Amino acid sequence: MSDEHSEHRTAGASGHSGHDSRHFETLAIHAGQPADATTGAVVTPIYQVSTYKQDGVGGLRGGYEYSRSANPTRTALEENLAALEGGRRGLAFASGLAAEDCLLRTLLAPGDHVVIPNDAYGGTFRLFAKVVERWGVRWSVADTSDVQAVRDAVRPETRLIWVETPSNPLLGITDIAALADVARQAGVRLVVDNTFASPYLQQPLALGADIVVHSLTKYMGGHSDVVGGALVTSDAELGEQLAYHQNAMGAVAGPFDAWLVMRGVKTLAVRMDRHCANAGRVAEMLSAHPKVTQVYYPGLETHPGHEVAAKQMKAFGGMVSFRVAGGEEAAVRVCDRARLFTLGESLGGVESLIEHPGRMTHASVAGSALEVPADLVRLSVGIEAVDDLLADLTQALG
Ligand SMILES: *Cc1c(COP(=O)(O)O)cnc(C)c1O
């Protein structure tokens, strides 16, 4: 281990990654996580503590004074996240929406405008439509897969362009590099919600995005046992502003949650490889099924975003949506009949999940521009044996 890695980290350096050229799989296991300086423990301990002894007034050990401001377990995760996204600063929050809230309240003021995707995550849409709007922030929706549509949606008051790619639940693909150009020309910031892809498949900062948002609850945690969120940026000054608001607003990730996410992230690469392989097989099978009228998966050559996805992603992810012949009732029946695919919200865990977005995850966007088709079923394809998954879907489709 080099001196750099055995040094005591300081809270002031929280989330700053060095210029670490090691490969993704190596960083996932080691970045931000040197062996414990006191005991040699190879896994970062859970520092379940709120306050820290000071060596004289103001004499902080390693910069730690109070765990809302910084906690060593959270610091380890934040440094890890920064390294995985190729950013300079990572910040970990109590949930994905807490991370988004911190970002919006750091960057926006009354009168500002945000362009959001026309198939945004339901909770993100609700945050804009029901919470942030009451504070005078304006928003409008655009099909972010259409570069010109986004350019047209930008106003003089626009501060942010918000992108999810692949999007939820329709797996739309947005060209991140193209929108980074639009954002730069307009003098606005580009935010990419990288939850569906994870940094293993897609690195928005390298493509020109200013800020990456994560729900760590999904692929990063990967085991459906923790709720968390993150922001990562390569702009050091913006990182400082976000860290200030993280502390001022207080929705931080607790030490045990941070530890669970780190544990999940160590296997992110191998899990994602299997998620992608299984989802590809599921998408192929559904495409050939007589009761399926449409399949949404960016790995299919027929997907309108396939070429852009192939350009900016390492593989196509573990999410597949499809429409069922026979309308809403037929779609609901498929969800009810599935056995190995567990009926439930959320995604990105090792176990396969199935849901009806119209009545479940996306019920809050009914009647809005973000409404999803009533005959739509969404799958989070897990890492079980693919033959068992295919058999379950076949029986559920009847
Ligand atoms: C789940 C999710 C969120 C919100 O994250 P929480 O951890 O549930 O607060 C944001 N964006 C996407 C794409 C998500 O799937």
Write the layout of secondary structure elements.
Elements: H1 3-6, H2 24-30, H3 72-84, E1 89-93, H4 96-107, E2 113-117, H5 122-131, E3 138-142, H6 147-153, E4 158-164, H7 176-186, E5 189-193, H8 198-201, E6 211-215, E7 229-233, H9 236-249, H10 255-265, H11 268-287, E8 292-296, H12 306-312, E9 319-324, H13 327-337, E10 342-343, E11 353-355, E12 376-380, H14 386-397
Parallel strand pairs: 2-3, 2-4, 4-5, 5-6, 10-11
Antiparallel strand pairs: 1-7, 6-7, 8-9, 9-12, 11-12
Helix pairs in contact: 2-3, 3-10, 4-9, 13-14
The structure holds pyridoxal-5'-phosphate (PLP).
Explained architecture:
It contains 14 helices and 12 strands. The longest helix is centred in the C-terminal third of the chain and has 20 residues, at about 270-285. Strand 2 (about 115), helix 5 and strand 3 (about 140) form a beta-alpha-beta unit. It starts with a helix and ends with a helix. The chain has 2 domains: about 5-265, Type I PLP-dependent aspartate aminotransferase-like (Major domain) (Aspartate Aminotransferase, domain 2, 3-Layer(aba) Sandwich); about 270-395, Aspartate Aminotransferase, domain 1. With about 400 residues, the chain is an alpha/beta fold. Bound molecules: pyridoxal-5'-phosphate (PLP). Pyridoxal-5'-phosphate (PLP) binds near residues 96, 193, 215, 218 and 227. It comes from Actinacidiphila acidipaludis.
